[in-house]
TrEMBL record:
Organism expressing this protein natively: Streptomyces niphimycinicus
Keyword Cell wall biogenesis/degradation: no
Thioredoxin-like fold domain boundaries: 102-268
PANTHER family: DISULFIDE BOND FORMATION PROTEIN D (PTHR13887:SF14), GLUTATHIONE S-TRANSFERASE KAPPA (PTHR13887)
Residue ranges crossing the lipid bilayer per the database entry: 32-53
Segments of skewed composition (Basic and acidic residues): 1-24
Keyword terms: Disulfide bond, Membrane, Oxidoreductase, Redox-active center, Signal, Transmembrane, Transmembrane helix
Membership in a protein family: Belongs to the thioredoxin family. DsbA subfamily.
Region (Disordered): 1-29, 54-78
Top-rank taxon, per record: Bacteria
Protein name: DsbA family protein
Matching Pfam families: Thioredoxin_4
């Protein structure tokens, strides 16, 4: 074999060896980068979880960022504010401690900006209070935000939050403040209830309601998320408008062929008690 051939074979072997070395080095770098990538991904995931957990913890402590039901709220998701006998009477039609049947339940879905709701309240307020105070009927309020969605603004949410803040102060304060809001309801196109100062000023008409805690609750929107959740549930409830009024679970208001009057409501409540 000539010297040239031997040198050519050695050169080929050297090039093959160098190529294999390069491939091994390349594979080693890939493995190293893969491990580092996995570590970075794990660390990033841990940081992400920490950020989510931190954000959740931070947000949960801020008013309006998490669902905070008002004191005494009842029902599924604690989305119902009871008024009158519902605050102390038994449920499910069972007799109370005095041996009397539990009062019938009037369920009302309302929006504080809704003119139709004001009309219902103006006509039936006195009768509803009488039936409540006599222990014949309890009322369960669902606060709704339809007008905000239809006309824009935030007055429905702000007023409902303020009413929930009144419930926090004292169960009896909700009914009184609820009535004040309807008596002074602005025109549907005027979003006056979007102003917390207006809501707090109206609260002065309820003795003992305006406290530092009430002001803070209103101004920070403590129950905003709860109000929005209540509105969302109503939007998927199958009911189309406010007010929606149910007596014993059956719709009794809004049918032009079967109009409801205060006297008719009294008769229906008495009949339900006899049943």
């Amino acid at each position: 074999m000539s010297q040239r051939n031997r040198e050519g074979k050695r050169g080929a072997r050297e090039r093959l060896r160098e190529q294999r070395e390069r491939e091994r080095s390349r594979a080693k770098r890939k493995r190293t980068l893969g491990v580092l990538g996995a570590v970075v991904a794990v660390l990033a995931g841990a940081v992400g979880v920490g950020m989510v957990a931190s954000r959740t913890e931070d947000d949960s402590g801020k008013s309006g960022s998490s669902v905070v039901p008002p004191r005494g709220a009842i029902g599924k998701g604690h989305l119902v504010i009871p008024s009158g006998m519902a605050e102390k009477a038994g449920r499910g039609g069972q007799a109370d401690q005095a041996g009397k049947p539990a009062p019938v339940t009037l369920t009302v879905y309302e929006d504080f900006r809704c003119p139709g709701c004001k009309q219902f309240e103006d006509v039936f307020r006195k009768t509803v209070h009488e039936l409540q105070d006599e222990g014949r009927m309890k009322v369960e309020y669902h606060l709704v935000t339809i007008i905000d969605g239809n006309l824009g603004g935030t007055g429905s949410v702000r007023a409902a939050n303020a009413a929930a803040c009144a419930q926090d102060q004292d169960a009896g304060k909700f009914r009184a403040y609820h009535d004040v809001l309807y008596r002074h309801q602005p025109a549907e196109t005027r979003d006056s209830y979007a102003k917390n100062a207006r809501l707090i000023k109206l609260a002065d008409q309820v003795p003992g309601l305006v406290t530092a805690a009430f002001r803070k609750c209103v101004e920070e929107g403590r129950h905003d998320a709860w109000v929005r959740k209540s509105g969302d549930v109503f939007a998927h409830s199958g009911y189309a408008s406010t007010p929606t009024v149910l007596l014993g679970g059956k719709s009794v208001y809004g049918d032009p062929d079967k109009p409801l009057s205060p006297n008719k409501l009294k008769r229906m409540v008495l009949a339900a008690a006899r049943d």
